[in-house]
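The instructor's notes for this session suggest beginning with a concrete chain rather than abstract definitions. Hand out the sequence below and ask the class to guess, before any prediction is shown, which regions might be ordered.
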Amino acid sequence: MRRFAAVVVGAVLFVNLAQAGESAVTAVQVRAEGGGKYSFSVTLRHDDEGWDHYADRWEVLTMDGEVIATRTLFHPHVNEQPFTRSLGGVEVPVGTTRVRIRSHDSVHAYGGPELVVELETGATKPWTGDNS
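After discussion, reveal the predicted structure:
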C-alpha cells in the first residue's frame, strides 16, 4: 500500500510540474539593421502560471548551437498569450544565412518547439534537429 501511495504522490507532483508544459516559439520576424546586425521579434506560447513557472527567455543561435543573443523575460505573461517581444542590434556572424530561435521556461528549461529563420527572406520552418 505504501508503494502505491508513493507512486500516486509522485504522479500528482509530476502532473503539477508539467501543467504549463514547455515554452514554444510560434513565430519569428527578422529585419536587417545593416552592418551585420538584425532585429528579431519572437512570439512565444507558454501557459505561464506565475513567478514559479513562466517563459523566462528566448535565444538566437547559429545552426551549430552557438548562442549569439538572449532576450530575457523578467516577468510572467499569465494573461497575455501568446506574446511577442523584440531584440535589436543582434550581431550575426559573417556568412550566416539562417539562425535558430529557441525558448526557455523556468521549470522545463529547453525542449519546446523551435524555429529556423532565413535572414534574407524571413521565411521560417520548424527546427528538426539538423535542418541541414
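Then share the key points. The chain has a mean pLDDT of 81. The chain has one domain: 22-126.
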